[in-house]
Amino acid sequence: MHLSNFIKLPYHAYKLLRNFIFCKVKLGKGNWDRSWVFHKLPIIRKHRDAKIKIGKNFVACSHPKKNSIGVFQRVKLYALKSNSYLKIGNRVGISGATLSCYQKIEIGNNVLIGSGVLITDNDAHAINYWERKEDSKIKIASVVIEDDVFIGARSIILKGVRIGAGSVIGAGSVVTKDIPQMSIAVGNPANVIKKIKKRNPNK
Predict the structure, then answer these.
(1) What is the pLDDT of residues 42-73, one digit of tens each?
(2) Helices (H) then strands (E): counts for the chain
(3) What is the DSSP letter of 122?
(4) Domain shared by 11 and 42, yes or no
(5) Whole-prediction pTM value?
(6) Is 12 a catalytic residue?
(7) What sign results for the dihedral spanned by CA atoms 82, 83, 89, 95?
(8) Quick one: 137 and 124 in the same domain?
(9) Which domain holds residue 44?
(10) Which residues, 6+ apart, have CB-to-CB distance to 203 below 8 Å?
């Protein structure tokens, strides 16, 4: 074994132990997989009765040197209410993004979420100023990101949105309505500008 690889072994073991302890504390017993990679630890806030489920080969990048355009914050996974359910599929990569879940956010498989993205299923505050201290007045609607979606940096995905499989959300977009499968959507509010041709398996 090369000396540099031998030196890396203790550090690799330390990171595995660190991730295991961190996830046990933040997510509860059994919610950890050795395939997960954390480039700096994410921030996780979870109501004791909420559920956060993460698939295999999850990558959370909170380190500016590990992303080609950098990150200005750590990955934040929030499941803030007793019935919150945040589900992240297999082979998902998230860089410096926030997922704020009051009800349900579901991320499919093979999804990439760019630096500074915000995905939220809630308005955080009521619209009327006299109701802003009342949690019951906050509008909430589930968000679904289907398989193979790429969400560009600094985009915002708002409550009640479903993004169809294989779609791309352009950087800086604000998604306020459903996006069909295999679409490129950009702008504020985001609109579909192009359809993506499905791969021809014969080529």
Answers:
(1) 999 999 999 999 999 999 999 999 888 999 99
(2) 1, 19
(3) B
(4) no
(5) 0.91
(6) no
(7) negative
(8) yes
(9) 34-195
(10) none
